[in-house]
Amino acid sequence: MSISDPSAAQTPLLDDTVDGCLDYKGRPVRRSSSGCWRSASFIIVVEIAERFAYYGISSNLITYLTGPLGESTATAAAQVNAWNGAASLLPLLGAFIADSFLGRYRTIILASLVYVLGIGLLALSATLSSISSSGGQNADDIALSSSLQFQVILFFSSLYLVAFAQGGHKPCVQAFGADQFDTQDAEECKAKSSFFNWWYFGMCAGTLTTLSILNYIQDNLSWVLGFAIPGIVMAVGLVVFLLGTMTYRYSVKGDEESPIVTVGRVFILAVRNRKTSYSAIAAEEEARGILATESSKQFKFLNKALLAPDGSKEQGEVCSIREVEEAKAVIRLAPIWATSLTYAIVFAQSSTFFTKQGATMDRSTATGFEIPAASLQSFISLSIVLFIPIYDRIFVPLTRALTGEPAGITLLQRIGSGMVISTISLVIAAVVEMRRLKIAEEHGLIDKPIVVVPMSIWWLVPQYALYGLADVFTMVGLQEFFYDQMPNELRSVGLALYLSIFGVGSFLSSFLISAIENLTSRDGRDSWFANNLNRAHLDYFYLLLAALSAVGLTLYVCCTKYYIYARWGRTF
Protein backbone atom coordinates (compact mmCIF):
# COMPACT_ATOMS: atom_id res chain seq x y z
CA MET A 1 0.00 0.00 0.00
CA SER A 2 1.61 3.27 -1.14
CA ILE A 3 1.37 6.48 0.88
CA SER A 4 1.94 9.73 -1.02
CA ASP A 5 2.66 11.82 2.08
CA PRO A 6 4.49 9.82 4.73
CA SER A 7 4.62 12.70 7.19
CA ALA A 8 0.86 13.10 7.06
CA ALA A 9 0.40 9.41 7.66
CA GLN A 10 2.68 9.43 10.64
CA THR A 11 1.35 12.64 12.20
CA PRO A 12 -2.44 12.43 12.64
CA LEU A 13 -4.56 15.50 13.26
CA LEU A 14 -4.09 16.71 16.83
CA ASP A 15 -7.74 16.39 17.86
CA ASP A 16 -7.91 12.86 16.40
CA THR A 17 -4.89 11.59 18.34
CA VAL A 18 -5.21 9.47 21.50
CA ASP A 19 -2.69 10.57 24.12
CA GLY A 20 -0.38 7.91 25.49
CA CYS A 21 -1.15 5.36 22.78
CA LEU A 22 0.51 4.17 19.56
CA ASP A 23 -0.60 1.94 16.71
CA TYR A 24 0.94 -1.43 15.81
CA LYS A 25 3.77 0.32 13.92
CA GLY A 26 4.64 2.62 16.79
CA ARG A 27 2.98 5.71 15.27
CA PRO A 28 0.55 8.12 17.00
CA VAL A 29 -2.82 6.44 16.84
CA ARG A 30 -5.98 7.95 15.33
CA ARG A 31 -9.12 7.89 17.50
CA SER A 32 -11.34 7.54 14.42
CA SER A 33 -9.68 4.37 13.13
CA SER A 34 -8.63 2.53 16.27
CA GLY A 35 -9.78 1.27 19.63
CA CYS A 36 -13.26 1.33 21.13
CA TRP A 37 -15.67 -1.45 20.20
CA ARG A 38 -14.03 -2.18 16.83
CA SER A 39 -10.95 -3.42 18.73
CA ALA A 40 -12.67 -4.63 21.90
CA SER A 41 -14.77 -7.09 19.87
CA PHE A 42 -11.66 -9.04 18.80
CA ILE A 43 -10.44 -9.12 22.40
CA ILE A 44 -13.82 -10.27 23.74
CA VAL A 45 -13.76 -13.16 21.25
CA VAL A 46 -10.42 -14.45 22.56
CA GLU A 47 -11.78 -14.14 26.11
CA ILE A 48 -14.86 -16.19 25.17
CA ALA A 49 -12.52 -18.85 23.75
CA GLU A 50 -10.37 -18.79 26.90
CA ARG A 51 -13.39 -19.14 29.21
CA PHE A 52 -14.71 -21.98 27.03
CA ALA A 53 -11.35 -23.72 27.42
CA TYR A 54 -10.92 -23.01 31.14
CA TYR A 55 -14.41 -24.11 32.18
CA GLY A 56 -14.20 -27.04 29.80
CA ILE A 57 -11.54 -28.28 32.20
CA SER A 58 -12.55 -26.90 35.60
CA SER A 59 -16.34 -27.37 35.59
CA ASN A 60 -16.19 -31.17 35.45
CA LEU A 61 -12.74 -31.66 36.96
CA ILE A 62 -14.07 -33.15 40.20
CA THR A 63 -15.90 -35.82 38.17
CA TYR A 64 -12.66 -36.79 36.39
CA LEU A 65 -10.72 -36.92 39.66
CA THR A 66 -13.30 -39.07 41.45
CA GLY A 67 -13.90 -41.17 38.31
CA PRO A 68 -10.94 -42.14 36.08
CA LEU A 69 -8.36 -41.12 38.73
CA GLY A 70 -10.30 -42.71 41.63
CA GLU A 71 -9.90 -40.01 44.29
CA SER A 72 -12.22 -39.46 47.27
CA THR A 73 -14.75 -36.61 47.23
CA ALA A 74 -12.97 -34.54 49.89
CA THR A 75 -9.52 -35.04 48.30
CA ALA A 76 -10.83 -34.20 44.82
CA ALA A 77 -12.64 -31.07 46.10
CA ALA A 78 -9.47 -29.91 47.87
CA GLN A 79 -7.38 -30.47 44.72
CA VAL A 80 -9.88 -28.63 42.52
CA ASN A 81 -9.79 -25.70 44.93
CA ALA A 82 -5.97 -25.79 45.06
CA TRP A 83 -5.75 -25.74 41.26
CA ASN A 84 -8.31 -22.95 40.96
CA GLY A 85 -6.35 -21.09 43.63
CA ALA A 86 -3.09 -21.41 41.71
CA ALA A 87 -4.82 -20.37 38.48
CA SER A 88 -6.13 -17.24 40.21
CA LEU A 89 -2.87 -16.32 41.96
CA LEU A 90 -0.52 -16.79 38.99
CA PRO A 91 -1.98 -13.69 37.25
CA LEU A 92 0.07 -11.66 39.76
CA LEU A 93 3.19 -13.05 38.07
CA GLY A 94 1.69 -12.65 34.60
CA ALA A 95 0.73 -9.05 35.27
CA PHE A 96 4.21 -8.24 36.59
CA ILE A 97 5.82 -9.70 33.45
CA ALA A 98 3.38 -7.82 31.20
CA ASP A 99 3.62 -4.44 32.92
CA SER A 100 7.38 -4.59 33.46
CA PHE A 101 8.78 -6.44 30.43
CA LEU A 102 6.72 -7.88 27.57
CA GLY A 103 3.65 -5.65 27.43
CA ARG A 104 0.08 -6.90 27.40
CA TYR A 105 -0.19 -7.75 23.70
CA ARG A 106 2.88 -10.01 23.60
CA THR A 107 1.99 -11.63 26.93
CA ILE A 108 -1.47 -12.54 25.60
CA ILE A 109 0.04 -14.24 22.53
CA LEU A 110 2.64 -16.17 24.55
CA ALA A 111 0.11 -17.23 27.20
CA SER A 112 -2.34 -18.41 24.53
CA LEU A 113 0.33 -20.62 22.93
CA VAL A 114 1.18 -22.16 26.31
CA TYR A 115 -2.56 -22.61 26.92
CA VAL A 116 -2.95 -24.67 23.74
CA LEU A 117 0.12 -26.75 24.65
CA GLY A 118 -1.18 -27.47 28.15
CA ILE A 119 -4.62 -28.55 26.94
CA GLY A 120 -3.04 -30.74 24.29
CA LEU A 121 -0.99 -32.56 26.93
CA LEU A 122 -4.12 -32.86 29.07
CA ALA A 123 -5.89 -34.64 26.22
CA LEU A 124 -2.85 -36.90 25.85
CA SER A 125 -3.04 -37.88 29.52
CA ALA A 126 -6.73 -38.76 29.07
CA THR A 127 -5.70 -40.95 26.12
CA LEU A 128 -3.44 -42.92 28.47
CA SER A 129 -6.40 -43.34 30.81
CA SER A 130 -8.46 -44.78 27.97
CA ILE A 131 -5.67 -47.21 27.07
CA SER A 132 -5.25 -48.32 30.71
CA SER A 133 -8.98 -48.86 31.24
CA SER A 134 -9.18 -51.01 28.08
CA GLY A 135 -6.47 -53.38 29.34
CA GLY A 136 -7.48 -57.03 29.75
CA GLN A 137 -7.51 -59.24 32.85
CA ASN A 138 -4.07 -60.64 31.99
CA ALA A 139 -2.40 -57.27 31.70
CA ASP A 140 0.76 -56.94 33.72
CA ASP A 141 -0.13 -55.22 37.06
CA ILE A 142 3.27 -53.53 37.37
CA ALA A 143 3.02 -52.10 33.87
CA LEU A 144 -0.50 -50.81 34.58
CA SER A 145 0.66 -49.26 37.85
CA SER A 146 3.59 -47.57 36.11
CA SER A 147 1.29 -46.35 33.34
CA LEU A 148 -1.17 -44.95 35.88
CA GLN A 149 1.62 -43.17 37.75
CA PHE A 150 2.90 -41.58 34.52
CA GLN A 151 -0.66 -40.62 33.58
CA VAL A 152 -1.22 -38.88 36.95
CA ILE A 153 2.09 -36.99 36.68
CA LEU A 154 1.34 -35.92 33.10
CA PHE A 155 -2.22 -34.97 34.02
CA PHE A 156 -1.32 -32.69 36.92
CA SER A 157 1.69 -31.23 35.09
CA SER A 158 -0.58 -30.35 32.15
CA LEU A 159 -3.23 -29.02 34.50
CA TYR A 160 -0.82 -26.62 36.18
CA LEU A 161 0.65 -25.63 32.81
CA VAL A 162 -2.86 -24.47 31.91
CA ALA A 163 -3.01 -22.58 35.22
CA PHE A 164 0.33 -20.92 34.39
CA ALA A 165 -0.97 -19.93 30.94
CA GLN A 166 -4.14 -18.52 32.46
CA GLY A 167 -1.93 -16.49 34.78
CA GLY A 168 -0.49 -14.61 31.81
CA HIS A 169 -3.68 -14.48 29.80
CA LYS A 170 -6.34 -13.41 32.30
CA PRO A 171 -5.11 -10.04 33.64
CA CYS A 172 -3.69 -8.87 30.32
CA VAL A 173 -6.66 -9.56 28.05
CA GLN A 174 -9.11 -7.60 30.16
CA ALA A 175 -6.68 -4.73 30.79
CA PHE A 176 -5.79 -4.63 27.07
CA GLY A 177 -9.50 -4.53 26.22
CA ALA A 178 -10.13 -1.66 28.62
CA ASP A 179 -7.08 0.14 27.18
CA GLN A 180 -9.02 0.51 23.93
CA PHE A 181 -11.20 3.16 25.61
CA ASP A 182 -9.75 6.60 26.38
CA THR A 183 -10.71 7.67 29.93
CA GLN A 184 -9.99 11.31 29.03
CA ASP A 185 -12.91 11.26 26.61
CA ALA A 186 -16.32 11.39 28.33
CA GLU A 187 -18.11 9.21 25.75
CA GLU A 188 -15.37 6.57 25.65
CA CYS A 189 -15.26 6.52 29.45
CA LYS A 190 -18.98 5.65 29.56
CA ALA A 191 -18.36 3.01 26.89
CA LYS A 192 -15.60 1.55 29.05
CA SER A 193 -18.04 1.03 31.92
CA SER A 194 -20.35 -0.83 29.51
CA PHE A 195 -17.33 -2.75 28.25
CA PHE A 196 -16.89 -4.45 31.64
CA ASN A 197 -20.56 -5.49 31.62
CA TRP A 198 -20.45 -6.86 28.08
CA TRP A 199 -17.04 -8.38 28.72
CA TYR A 200 -18.55 -10.48 31.47
CA PHE A 201 -21.51 -11.22 29.21
CA GLY A 202 -19.10 -12.65 26.63
CA MET A 203 -17.25 -14.63 29.29
CA CYS A 204 -20.47 -16.22 30.47
CA ALA A 205 -21.59 -16.94 26.92
CA GLY A 206 -18.41 -18.97 26.49
CA THR A 207 -18.95 -20.66 29.84
CA LEU A 208 -22.59 -21.43 29.04
CA THR A 209 -21.58 -23.04 25.75
CA THR A 210 -18.94 -25.23 27.32
CA LEU A 211 -21.25 -26.34 30.14
CA SER A 212 -23.98 -27.19 27.66
CA ILE A 213 -21.79 -29.18 25.28
CA LEU A 214 -18.51 -30.32 26.80
CA ASN A 215 -19.87 -31.78 30.04
CA TYR A 216 -22.13 -34.09 28.05
CA ILE A 217 -19.22 -35.14 25.82
CA GLN A 218 -16.98 -35.80 28.83
CA ASP A 219 -19.60 -37.77 30.77
CA ASN A 220 -21.06 -39.78 27.89
CA LEU A 221 -18.62 -39.90 24.97
CA SER A 222 -14.92 -39.35 25.65
CA TRP A 223 -12.69 -37.46 28.07
CA VAL A 224 -10.06 -37.26 25.33
CA LEU A 225 -12.47 -35.42 23.02
CA GLY A 226 -13.79 -33.40 25.96
CA PHE A 227 -10.26 -32.08 26.65
CA ALA A 228 -9.20 -31.72 22.99
CA ILE A 229 -12.07 -29.46 21.91
CA PRO A 230 -11.11 -26.63 24.34
CA GLY A 231 -7.59 -26.65 22.86
CA ILE A 232 -8.95 -26.25 19.34
CA VAL A 233 -11.28 -23.43 20.41
CA MET A 234 -8.39 -21.68 22.17
CA ALA A 235 -6.27 -21.86 19.01
CA VAL A 236 -9.11 -20.34 16.95
CA GLY A 237 -9.50 -17.57 19.54
CA LEU A 238 -5.81 -16.70 19.23
CA VAL A 239 -6.14 -16.39 15.45
CA VAL A 240 -9.11 -14.01 15.84
CA PHE A 241 -7.14 -11.94 18.36
CA LEU A 242 -4.26 -11.59 15.88
CA LEU A 243 -6.68 -10.40 13.18
CA GLY A 244 -7.36 -7.27 15.25
CA THR A 245 -3.68 -6.32 15.55
CA MET A 246 -3.90 -3.32 13.19
CA THR A 247 -6.87 -1.78 15.05
CA TYR A 248 -5.51 -1.94 18.61
CA ARG A 249 -4.27 0.96 20.71
CA TYR A 250 -0.99 0.11 22.43
CA SER A 251 -0.13 1.99 25.62
CA VAL A 252 3.17 3.84 25.43
CA LYS A 253 5.81 2.27 27.63
CA GLY A 254 8.77 4.56 28.20
CA ASP A 255 12.20 3.80 29.56
CA GLU A 256 11.16 4.57 33.12
CA GLU A 257 11.55 1.90 35.79
CA SER A 258 8.87 -0.66 36.60
CA PRO A 259 5.84 0.89 38.32
CA ILE A 260 5.99 -1.92 40.87
CA VAL A 261 9.54 -0.87 41.75
CA THR A 262 8.38 2.75 42.00
CA VAL A 263 5.61 1.89 44.45
CA GLY A 264 8.02 -0.30 46.41
CA ARG A 265 10.47 2.59 46.70
CA VAL A 266 7.77 4.75 48.30
CA PHE A 267 7.32 2.22 51.09
CA ILE A 268 11.09 1.80 51.55
CA LEU A 269 11.73 5.54 51.77
CA ALA A 270 8.79 6.01 54.15
CA VAL A 271 10.20 3.33 56.48
CA ARG A 272 13.73 4.81 56.29
CA ASN A 273 12.25 8.21 57.14
CA ARG A 274 10.09 6.87 59.97
CA LYS A 275 11.80 9.20 62.49
CA THR A 276 11.16 12.29 60.39
CA SER A 277 8.71 14.64 62.12
CA TYR A 278 5.37 15.44 60.51
CA SER A 279 6.23 19.15 60.77
CA ALA A 280 9.11 18.57 58.33
CA ILE A 281 6.73 16.74 56.00
CA ALA A 282 4.22 19.59 56.25
CA ALA A 283 6.96 22.08 55.36
CA GLU A 284 7.94 19.99 52.33
CA GLU A 285 4.31 19.74 51.21
CA GLU A 286 3.93 23.50 51.53
CA ALA A 287 7.14 24.07 49.58
CA ARG A 288 5.82 21.88 46.75
CA GLY A 289 2.47 23.64 46.79
CA ILE A 290 0.51 20.53 47.74
CA LEU A 291 -3.08 21.34 48.67
CA ALA A 292 -4.58 19.42 51.58
CA THR A 293 -7.08 16.86 50.30
CA GLU A 294 -8.77 13.78 51.76
CA SER A 295 -6.25 11.66 49.90
CA SER A 296 -3.20 13.56 51.16
CA LYS A 297 -4.44 13.31 54.74
CA GLN A 298 -4.90 9.54 54.51
CA PHE A 299 -1.87 7.30 55.18
CA LYS A 300 0.24 10.37 55.98
CA PHE A 301 3.08 8.03 56.93
CA LEU A 302 3.80 7.55 53.22
CA ASN A 303 4.23 11.31 52.76
CA LYS A 304 7.62 10.81 54.43
CA ALA A 305 8.82 9.39 51.10
CA LEU A 306 8.80 12.97 49.79
CA LEU A 307 12.06 13.53 51.69
CA ALA A 308 15.37 11.73 51.30
CA PRO A 309 16.77 9.94 54.39
CA ASP A 310 19.78 12.29 54.46
CA GLY A 311 17.63 15.38 53.99
CA SER A 312 18.79 15.94 50.39
CA LYS A 313 16.45 16.48 47.46
CA GLU A 314 18.57 15.06 44.67
CA GLN A 315 16.86 13.55 41.65
CA GLY A 316 16.12 9.90 42.27
CA GLU A 317 16.50 10.16 46.03
CA VAL A 318 12.93 11.29 46.73
CA CYS A 319 9.51 10.30 45.46
CA SER A 320 7.12 12.54 43.58
CA ILE A 321 3.62 13.41 44.76
CA ARG A 322 2.11 11.14 42.11
CA GLU A 323 4.28 8.20 43.16
CA VAL A 324 3.18 8.62 46.78
CA GLU A 325 -0.47 8.81 45.69
CA GLU A 326 -0.04 5.64 43.61
CA ALA A 327 1.31 3.82 46.66
CA LYS A 328 -1.63 5.05 48.71
CA ALA A 329 -4.02 3.80 46.05
CA VAL A 330 -2.54 0.31 46.38
CA ILE A 331 -2.91 0.38 50.19
CA ARG A 332 -6.53 1.52 49.97
CA LEU A 333 -7.36 -1.60 47.99
CA ALA A 334 -6.09 -3.94 50.72
CA PRO A 335 -9.18 -3.83 53.03
CA ILE A 336 -11.55 -4.29 50.07
CA TRP A 337 -9.40 -7.20 48.85
CA ALA A 338 -9.37 -8.87 52.29
CA THR A 339 -13.09 -8.50 53.00
CA SER A 340 -13.97 -9.92 49.56
CA LEU A 341 -12.31 -13.26 50.41
CA THR A 342 -15.46 -14.73 51.95
CA TYR A 343 -17.26 -14.15 48.66
CA ALA A 344 -14.45 -16.01 46.89
CA ILE A 345 -14.80 -18.97 49.29
CA VAL A 346 -18.50 -19.14 48.46
CA PHE A 347 -17.74 -18.86 44.74
CA ALA A 348 -15.51 -21.96 44.90
CA GLN A 349 -18.37 -24.29 45.84
CA SER A 350 -20.33 -24.23 42.58
CA SER A 351 -17.85 -26.44 40.72
CA THR A 352 -17.28 -28.89 43.59
CA PHE A 353 -19.98 -29.80 46.11
CA PHE A 354 -22.87 -28.40 44.09
CA THR A 355 -21.85 -30.77 41.28
CA LYS A 356 -21.48 -33.81 43.57
CA GLN A 357 -24.81 -32.93 45.20
CA GLY A 358 -26.53 -32.90 41.82
CA ALA A 359 -24.99 -36.26 40.85
CA THR A 360 -27.05 -38.00 43.59
CA MET A 361 -30.38 -36.55 42.40
CA ASP A 362 -32.86 -37.43 39.66
CA ARG A 363 -31.33 -35.98 36.49
CA SER A 364 -33.66 -37.52 33.91
CA THR A 365 -35.93 -35.48 31.66
CA ALA A 366 -39.28 -36.31 30.08
CA THR A 367 -37.48 -37.51 26.95
CA GLY A 368 -35.24 -39.87 28.93
CA PHE A 369 -32.13 -37.70 28.52
CA GLU A 370 -29.94 -37.59 31.65
CA ILE A 371 -28.58 -34.14 32.47
CA PRO A 372 -24.86 -34.10 33.40
CA ALA A 373 -24.60 -32.81 36.98
CA ALA A 374 -21.90 -30.29 36.08
CA SER A 375 -24.15 -28.80 33.37
CA LEU A 376 -26.30 -27.14 36.01
CA GLN A 377 -23.47 -24.64 36.39
CA SER A 378 -24.80 -23.29 33.10
CA PHE A 379 -27.61 -21.66 35.08
CA ILE A 380 -24.99 -19.36 36.63
CA SER A 381 -23.95 -18.25 33.16
CA LEU A 382 -27.53 -18.19 31.88
CA SER A 383 -28.69 -15.88 34.66
CA ILE A 384 -25.70 -13.62 33.98
CA VAL A 385 -26.37 -13.57 30.23
CA LEU A 386 -30.01 -12.69 30.88
CA PHE A 387 -29.43 -10.10 33.60
CA ILE A 388 -26.44 -8.15 32.25
CA PRO A 389 -28.46 -6.54 29.40
CA ILE A 390 -31.15 -5.67 31.96
CA TYR A 391 -28.51 -4.22 34.28
CA ASP A 392 -26.75 -2.24 31.55
CA ARG A 393 -29.81 -0.98 29.64
CA ILE A 394 -32.44 -0.59 32.38
CA PHE A 395 -30.95 -0.66 35.89
CA VAL A 396 -28.02 1.71 35.18
CA PRO A 397 -30.06 4.45 33.41
CA LEU A 398 -32.77 4.38 36.13
CA THR A 399 -30.32 4.54 39.03
CA ARG A 400 -28.18 7.12 37.19
CA ALA A 401 -31.21 9.41 37.04
CA LEU A 402 -31.70 8.99 40.79
CA THR A 403 -28.09 9.14 42.03
CA GLY A 404 -26.22 11.12 39.38
CA GLU A 405 -23.53 8.43 39.29
CA PRO A 406 -22.32 7.63 35.73
CA ALA A 407 -22.66 3.89 36.46
CA GLY A 408 -25.90 4.24 38.45
CA ILE A 409 -24.43 3.09 41.75
CA THR A 410 -20.84 3.24 42.98
CA LEU A 411 -18.55 0.30 42.38
CA LEU A 412 -18.39 -0.48 46.10
CA GLN A 413 -22.19 -0.48 46.36
CA ARG A 414 -22.34 -2.85 43.40
CA ILE A 415 -19.85 -5.24 44.98
CA GLY A 416 -21.66 -5.23 48.32
CA SER A 417 -25.03 -5.95 46.68
CA GLY A 418 -23.63 -9.14 45.15
CA MET A 419 -22.27 -10.24 48.53
CA VAL A 420 -25.77 -9.99 50.02
CA ILE A 421 -27.22 -12.10 47.20
CA SER A 422 -24.49 -14.76 47.54
CA THR A 423 -25.24 -15.11 51.27
CA ILE A 424 -28.92 -15.68 50.47
CA SER A 425 -27.97 -18.31 47.87
CA LEU A 426 -26.05 -20.30 50.50
CA VAL A 427 -29.03 -20.33 52.86
CA ILE A 428 -31.20 -21.65 50.02
CA ALA A 429 -28.54 -24.27 49.18
CA ALA A 430 -28.57 -25.45 52.80
CA VAL A 431 -32.40 -25.72 52.84
CA VAL A 432 -32.38 -27.73 49.57
CA GLU A 433 -29.71 -30.09 50.93
CA MET A 434 -31.74 -30.63 54.12
CA ARG A 435 -34.68 -31.65 51.97
CA ARG A 436 -32.50 -33.99 49.88
CA LEU A 437 -31.22 -35.72 53.03
CA LYS A 438 -34.75 -36.04 54.41
CA ILE A 439 -36.02 -37.64 51.19
CA ALA A 440 -33.05 -40.03 51.17
CA GLU A 441 -33.89 -41.06 54.75
CA GLU A 442 -37.63 -41.47 54.00
CA HIS A 443 -36.86 -43.81 51.10
CA GLY A 444 -34.27 -45.85 53.01
CA LEU A 445 -31.36 -44.67 50.85
CA ILE A 446 -29.00 -43.58 53.63
CA ASP A 447 -26.66 -46.52 52.96
CA LYS A 448 -27.35 -46.73 49.23
CA PRO A 449 -25.24 -43.93 47.73
CA ILE A 450 -25.41 -45.37 44.21
CA VAL A 451 -29.22 -45.29 44.10
CA VAL A 452 -30.68 -42.03 42.77
CA VAL A 453 -32.46 -39.92 45.38
CA PRO A 454 -36.03 -39.32 44.09
CA MET A 455 -35.68 -35.54 44.10
CA SER A 456 -35.40 -33.55 40.89
CA ILE A 457 -32.09 -31.88 40.16
CA TRP A 458 -34.08 -28.76 39.22
CA TRP A 459 -34.28 -28.01 42.96
CA LEU A 460 -30.67 -26.80 42.63
CA VAL A 461 -31.50 -24.19 39.97
CA PRO A 462 -32.35 -21.33 42.42
CA GLN A 463 -28.98 -21.48 44.17
CA TYR A 464 -27.15 -21.55 40.82
CA ALA A 465 -29.25 -18.69 39.44
CA LEU A 466 -28.61 -16.53 42.52
CA TYR A 467 -24.90 -17.26 42.16
CA GLY A 468 -25.11 -15.80 38.66
CA LEU A 469 -27.03 -12.74 39.84
CA ALA A 470 -24.44 -12.17 42.58
CA ASP A 471 -21.67 -12.38 39.96
CA VAL A 472 -23.28 -9.63 37.86
CA PHE A 473 -22.90 -7.31 40.82
CA THR A 474 -19.77 -8.49 42.63
CA MET A 475 -17.58 -10.10 39.96
CA VAL A 476 -18.06 -7.37 37.37
CA GLY A 477 -17.84 -4.73 40.09
CA LEU A 478 -14.54 -6.11 41.39
CA GLN A 479 -13.09 -6.27 37.87
CA GLU A 480 -13.89 -2.64 37.12
CA PHE A 481 -12.94 -1.49 40.64
CA PHE A 482 -9.46 -3.02 40.63
CA TYR A 483 -8.83 -1.76 37.09
CA ASP A 484 -10.20 1.73 37.64
CA GLN A 485 -8.58 2.39 41.02
CA MET A 486 -5.05 1.44 40.01
CA PRO A 487 -2.62 3.83 38.25
CA ASN A 488 -2.48 3.41 34.45
CA GLU A 489 0.87 1.62 34.58
CA LEU A 490 -0.37 -0.92 37.15
CA ARG A 491 -3.74 -1.88 35.73
CA SER A 492 -2.70 -5.41 34.74
CA VAL A 493 -1.52 -5.81 38.32
CA GLY A 494 -4.85 -4.40 39.51
CA LEU A 495 -6.78 -7.06 37.61
CA ALA A 496 -4.32 -9.68 38.87
CA LEU A 497 -5.10 -8.54 42.42
CA TYR A 498 -8.79 -8.98 41.65
CA LEU A 499 -8.12 -12.52 40.43
CA SER A 500 -5.94 -13.24 43.46
CA ILE A 501 -9.02 -12.76 45.64
CA PHE A 502 -10.44 -15.91 44.10
CA GLY A 503 -7.06 -17.65 44.23
CA VAL A 504 -6.65 -17.08 47.95
CA GLY A 505 -10.37 -17.80 48.41
CA SER A 506 -9.95 -21.19 46.71
CA PHE A 507 -6.97 -22.02 48.92
CA LEU A 508 -8.94 -20.97 52.01
CA SER A 509 -11.83 -23.13 50.83
CA SER A 510 -9.44 -26.06 50.38
CA PHE A 511 -8.00 -25.49 53.88
CA LEU A 512 -11.50 -25.19 55.36
CA ILE A 513 -12.62 -28.42 53.71
CA SER A 514 -9.54 -30.31 54.94
CA ALA A 515 -9.92 -28.94 58.49
CA ILE A 516 -13.63 -29.80 58.66
CA GLU A 517 -12.94 -33.24 57.15
CA ASN A 518 -10.41 -33.98 59.91
CA LEU A 519 -12.56 -32.58 62.73
CA THR A 520 -15.84 -34.23 61.75
CA SER A 521 -14.43 -37.67 60.84
CA ARG A 522 -12.87 -38.33 64.26
CA ASP A 523 -13.84 -41.43 66.25
CA GLY A 524 -15.05 -43.20 63.12
CA ARG A 525 -17.90 -40.76 62.45
CA ASP A 526 -19.05 -39.78 58.97
CA SER A 527 -17.59 -36.43 58.02
CA TRP A 528 -19.55 -33.55 56.54
CA PHE A 529 -17.98 -34.52 53.20
CA ALA A 530 -18.32 -38.32 53.36
CA ASN A 531 -18.13 -40.10 49.99
CA ASN A 532 -21.66 -41.26 50.72
CA LEU A 533 -23.36 -37.86 50.51
CA ASN A 534 -26.49 -39.34 52.08
CA ARG A 535 -24.51 -39.56 55.33
CA ALA A 536 -22.65 -36.29 54.80
CA HIS A 537 -23.78 -32.85 55.96
CA LEU A 538 -23.24 -30.36 53.19
CA ASP A 539 -26.14 -28.42 54.72
CA TYR A 540 -24.03 -27.67 57.81
CA PHE A 541 -21.16 -26.55 55.56
CA TYR A 542 -23.40 -24.21 53.56
CA LEU A 543 -24.80 -22.64 56.75
CA LEU A 544 -21.25 -22.16 58.07
CA LEU A 545 -20.30 -20.40 54.82
CA ALA A 546 -23.43 -18.22 55.05
CA ALA A 547 -22.38 -17.14 58.56
CA LEU A 548 -18.84 -16.39 57.35
CA SER A 549 -20.29 -14.40 54.43
CA ALA A 550 -22.40 -12.32 56.81
CA VAL A 551 -19.31 -11.52 58.90
CA GLY A 552 -17.30 -10.67 55.77
CA LEU A 553 -20.09 -8.43 54.49
CA THR A 554 -20.21 -6.53 57.79
CA LEU A 555 -16.45 -5.91 57.69
CA TYR A 556 -16.68 -4.91 54.04
CA VAL A 557 -19.33 -2.26 54.75
CA CYS A 558 -17.15 -0.85 57.54
CA CYS A 559 -14.15 -0.60 55.17
CA THR A 560 -16.10 1.10 52.40
CA LYS A 561 -16.96 4.01 54.70
CA TYR A 562 -13.31 5.07 54.74
CA TYR A 563 -12.49 4.44 51.09
CA ILE A 564 -11.47 7.42 48.92
CA TYR A 565 -11.90 6.90 45.17
CA ALA A 566 -8.94 7.59 42.89
CA ARG A 567 -9.62 9.57 39.68
CA TRP A 568 -6.69 8.70 37.42
CA GLY A 569 -6.66 10.63 34.17
CA ARG A 570 -10.22 11.95 34.49
CA THR A 571 -10.81 15.41 33.04
CA PHE A 572 -14.57 15.61 33.57
TrEMBL record:
Protein keywords: Membrane, Phosphoprotein, Transmembrane, Transmembrane helix
KW RNA-binding (keyword) present: no
Chief location category: membrane
Claim: Metal-binding is one of the keywords in the record: no
Domain of life from the UniProt record: Eukaryota
Membrane topology, from the record: Multi-pass membrane protein
Subcellular location: Membrane
Transmembrane annotation, as ranges: 108-128, 148-165, 198-217, 223-243, 371-391, 411-432, 495-516, 540-564
PROSITE patterns for this protein: PTR2_1
InterPro entries, alphabetized: MFS_trans_sf, NRT1/PTR, POT_fam, PTR2_symporter_CS
Family the UniProt entry places it in: Belongs to the major facilitator superfamily. Proton-dependent oligopeptide transporter (POT/PTR) (TC 2.A.17) family.
Name the UniProt record assigns to this protein: Protein NRT1/ PTR FAMILY 5.10-like
Native source organism of the sequence: Gossypium arboreum
Phylogenetic placement of the source organism: Eukaryota, Viridiplantae, Streptophyta, Embryophyta, Tracheophyta
